[in-house]
Each structure stands twice: as structure tokens, then as C-alpha cells.
Amino acid sequence: MNKKLLAAAVAGVFALPAVALAQSSVTISGFVGATVDNIKFSQPAATRTTASESRMSDDSSRIIFSVREDLGGGMSALVRLDVRPNIDTGAISTAGVSYVGISTKSAGRFTAGRHNLHRYKTPWDGWPMFGQLRMRPDALVDFAGAGAVAIANASRTPNSLMWSSPNWGGFTLDIGYSFNANGTGVTEADLTAGNTARKGRAWMLNPTFTAANWSIAYSYWDSKADAPVTAAGGTAAGQLASSDQRSNQLYGYYTWGGFKLGLLWNKTRLNAAATVGAVPVGTKLSERTAFSIPIRYTTGPHNFLAHYTRARDDTATAAQDGAKMWALMYAYALSKRTNVSLAYGKITNEGVAAFNFFGNAVGSTGSANSAPLAGEDGRIISFGIRHSY
Amino acid sequence: MNKKLLAVAVAGVFAAPAAAFAQSSVTISGAITMTVDNVKYSDTAKTTRSESRLNDESSSIIFNVREDLGGGMSAIVKVDVKPNPDSGAIAASGESFVGISTKTAGRFTAGRHNFHFFKTPWDGYGLSGGLKSHPSSLIDFAGGGKVAIANATRTPNSLMWSSPKWGGFAVDVGYSFNPGGGNTATEIGNAGATEADLTAGNTARRGRAWMLNPTFSGTNWHIGYSYWNGKPDAPTAVTATGVPSLAVQLGSSDQRSDSLYGYYTWGGFKLGLMWNKSKLNAAATAAGLPAVGTQLSNRTAWSIPIRYSWANHHILAHYTKARDDKATAAQDGAKMWALMYAYSLSKRTSVSLSYTKLTNDGNATAGGAGYNLYTNIVLGSANAGTTAGEDVRALIFGVRHNF
Question: What is the ipTM of this complex?
Fold first, then answer.
């Protein structure tokens, strides 16, 4: 996220104590985006009596408050609070990346809060750079279990600590830990009445090497939900959602001239953490491989983007449940911080798969009943506008 | 909303890029309004007829962002956050959008907008009088007072074009992909609705709303017309949940509303006038309910607000009437009046004392009106709703600070 605008902290002018100004700064940044979409389903289920709709959607708008205090000796206290106002529905939350911590020049940065762990790694510049959240390859890459289970929440991970190394000649390392990673809004739940399962936790390891025009990285995710028996609720869907997750990703990009070529490979496994019916703890419920190839070409204010992404058929299930997605996008930069865009995205679900466009659920930035049912194919045509500040 | 305080802009001091700063600004403005009131009901079956309380009156913290794109064009952002200093709730339910503003072709925005509601030229709200004494209590509701027109608040899923000012004339045109509908269970409309044409089992026409609002302003007068035509998405939900009822059918009905309004000022006086006609037609039906297309409500309302100001003192009053609904057999009109004194402690801070009374026609037995003081539940208290024929009065002390 660019933090280009200092939006606060004008002590002298606005009568804040001068001492406070010398020590601390508050920066307001973020972006506000909206899209006008038409979404349509082919091969609709019998219950889908209306197969298409037009809508206006918020594009995950945010107001970010960043606070920094120089503690001396190369050390700083830092705070980030990422507020998400939905300019469509009027909802608001602090669901973004938010934390408090200490940053040092030689030992890196330690933070506690809610972090991006493992997710969102595909080097696709369509979003957040230009808008159009729903075109992201994460629609397939960050989901397993035929599209029903988000890996690493496909969002921020709560209850988490993170250490980010200094930059050692291009090499950096992020290590994250969560006390309970199963859900974006959950608190710790080992004390749940009747819980006899192992304690929940998650680890994330993310080494990256970045050179002048290329980058390569690996991301490891291993999570176990708190109190999985309660979370499973005795249903197959609950068992899948509360399962132990193990995911590996390798990704990178290369740029030359106005071109950027990316690649991501992901392998994810889900193992039952609670017994439901005849399916005992430890059963492998999902094992699928996915890959994505994003490309971009930029010339002046014009940006052309595309990606092809595929989630292969799950080797742990008998049903056909892979999916493929492609997206095509044009973005025109009205300035360095304002752009408009036009995009087309299509997801083809095999058999019983139900992979959805990213952020397309109601309660997120989508609309009611816009999630695909098993085997339905979705396509979106979208016009977007976005301003970063 | 006044935007009087620039809370930003100290780039140089904190090493933000000077070029970036020159192009974009973030302004924080808003207002905090609190009232202490006593509401009392008559012609009522309530076992306790009155209560005193403290209310938030839709306080706002507004973030405005503007970037100069050159050639008279700007990128604009507005995010209107609503903190409730009473309940502790918070929402971004104000008018929020992102868009492009041009000097010659007007302003295009996408987000949630003020469409059609709150048009009565009553100045009491901005002078700390709160919302409960606002003429919108009658003007922005139909169906015996139970259905909010144009949500009686912001409309979600919406696009808007605002023209430049052509010698005092301006026009706003708005469109919503799903205006939400006047949900009778929420007092104000479904302002948080997302698009819902894809609702399982929905076979109805697609929802949408149009708004047209031309205005003309002279030096000391103003006249405006506002047109609203709203059809909520998936109205067939009336047949899908619980026992179908006329109240739910009313809530999901198609809305058509016309308002003509204006004011004239001379010296310290201001005289306003508002006329509104609203119709509700059934958009879905079920066993025992009127057929699709049946006119469920057709009522006319008007309001006369006046104000006299001298120095720091302001005296305001309005008389407002919702006439008996032509589409119903029951007596279901209502009348309302309010008297208010406000004192400006500065240009941005005021205190006030108000008295307002709303009288609903009819009664519980014969089926009467259930108009209520505006936002008397959502920004009032849980059981402050009115049943058919109940009357309500409020004595209100308010304080407001604009920043």
C-alpha cells in the first residue's frame, strides 16, 4: 500500500502539543473504489430462476491510519489501523491489516494484530493496483475443497504475530504465527466447553528474493483450527471448513520494458481435524494443485492485463471438482493515483466444483446469491473507478 | 454538511512527497449532534407512556479526498462514517462515493447517495434540533406511515450525475441497481441492501430506481422538483418467508413519488414549502393479498417550515400534514407541528430547545396511521414505534458542533 499522503498531525497549526508532534506522526492513506458489474451464470442450477444481474459494488475501499514514533537508536513504535468502509452497503469494519509493534533497523519488525499470512501471493497487478478485486486469480489459488474452503482465510489472519526481517541484499523473510487462524473474525477458542482436541495454531514462513526486475518467493502455511469438533458441527461441510490446512506456494515475476510475466504454483491439502460420521480424524479431505500465469503490458497510461488460472481436479475426491479461470482487463491511468478500468472474467467449474470470483460473496463486496452452485460457471463484465490517496 | 476544517495537509513537515501533496488532499469534516428528549404517547395502549433518553442524531465524520487531474477534472472521494456516541455503534452509512468531477460536464459518482429524501427546507436539524422534529417524519413515508420512500435515507447500489450550475439551474440524475425497498421492519428502508436479482426462486422483473432532481436557485429563493421511481429486487420474498402479510407486501412494493419544494428569504425570515405525492403498487403477492400491480397507497403530504433569525437567535416552526390515503378505506392521515428555539454559540456550535407533536388519524380498531417521529427507533429507543392511531410528542434539548 502506498502511503503517499500525510493527512494529519499538524500540531502547530491545529494546537496539538509541539512535543507530541516531534515524536509521533499519523498518516492517512488508502483508496476508494467502485465497480459496475454484470454477473451471469451459465449451466445454472434449477433453483437459479434469474441467471444474471447488474450491480454496483464497493471494491474493498479502505482508510488506513499509520502511526509511527521514533524511539531513538533506529527503533520505532508503529501502529497500523486499516478501516474498511463499504461505500455500497454502508457497513464498516477494521477488517484490514491492523497491528501494533516495534520496528528496528537491524532486527526487523515485530507486530501483533491481524496480518496477511500466505494469501494473495499471485503477482497479478489488476488489484490492488488498478481495482477489480473480483478478477483476482486468488479465486482459485486461495481455495481448496472444490472451492468451498479458504486457505489461510483468503483474507487477514487474526490472533497473529509477525516478524519481518530487514532487507539483506534483496532477501527478506516473514514469519507469522496465529493462536487460532480458523476464520477472519475469530478469537482464541481452545477453552471451548467440551473441547478435547489438540490446541489450534498456524505457522507461516515466507522467504522472498527481489532483484531489479525479478522476484522469487516461497510461502508455507500450516494451520490447525481451535476446537475443531465444535466448529465441524457434525456436518461434512463443517468438517471440511474446520480441517487442518497445509499449503505451499512458489511464485515470482520477471519484468522487461513494459512487460511483466508472473507465475504461481500452489499445492494444498486439507485433513479432517474432527470425526464426522464414518470419516475419522486425519482423513485427507482435499488435495489439489493450482497454478496461475498473470501477464501485464503497460504503455503510457494504458495497462493491459490478463491471467489464466487453473485449479486441477482434487486427487482426494472421486468427483470432478477442478476449475479454470481467465480474465482480461484494460486500465487507463488518469493520474498516478486515479484510474478507470474495464474487465472480463470467467470461471468454469467442473462437475461439483463451486469456485467463486474473489470477494463476490454477500457480506464481502458481492451480492446476495451471487456465489455459484455446484458446476455453475460464472462470468463478470465490470467497469471500475478507483482513487488512491 | 459544512466542510470547514482542513485536518490535513502538512506534507512538508513529514517528508511526504511534495508532488503528491500538491495533487491530492484529505479533508476531515462532519458534525456531532446529541439530544436529550422526553417522548410521550397518547391514545395509546402502552403500559408506560413516556421516557427520557439521550440520542445520537446521525453524527458524521466525513473524509473528502480530491486529486486535481488537470484540464478542470478532479478525482473525488467521500466517505461518510457515522459514529453513534450514544450506543457505540459505527457505520459508513452516510453518503459515500468515488467519482470524477469536471468543470463542464458535471460530476459522476458511484456509491450510496442521498436520493429524493430530506428535501423539506427545514433548518432545524443543522441548528441542533435533531431528526425527531423533522418534517420528513410525514413527508418521507407512505402506507399509513409505515413505508419509507426512497429509504428515507441513503440509497445503495447507486450512480449519480450532478450537472454544473447553469446560471442557478442544476440537475441531479440518479440510478440504483437495487434501491432496497421500504422494509417496514426497519423504520427506514433497506439502505444496506446489496443487489439481489439472483435470489433463489426470484421470477420478478429486475429491480432498479430512478431519481431526477432539477433545482433553480436565486439570490434569496430556491425551487426544486424531485422524482423517484423505485422497484426493489426480488419482491417475491413476500411469499417465501413466514406468513404473508399486507405489511410485508407494502414494504416490498414499487414506489413512485414526486416532490415540489422551495423557499424564500427576506431579512431574517425564511419561508419554505414542500408538497409530496407518493404511490405504492404491489410488486408481489400471496394467498389472501392484493394482486401484483394493485395500488396499496396513494397519499399527498405538505409542509410549511418557517424561520426567523436575528443575531445568534433562531426561532423555527413547521406545520406538516399527510392527507388521508386515497387507496385505503381506513382513516390514515397524520399531522405534525414543531416549535424550536436555537442559539448559536458560534458559527459552528449551537444549542436548542424544541417541542413537537405528531397526531395520527384513526385508531387501532378501525386501522389508523402509524407515522412516527423521524428516526425515533433507529436513533431513539427500542419501543418508540407507534401503532395505529397513537399520538406522540417530544420535548427536545439539542447540542451540535460542526467541524
Answer: 0.87
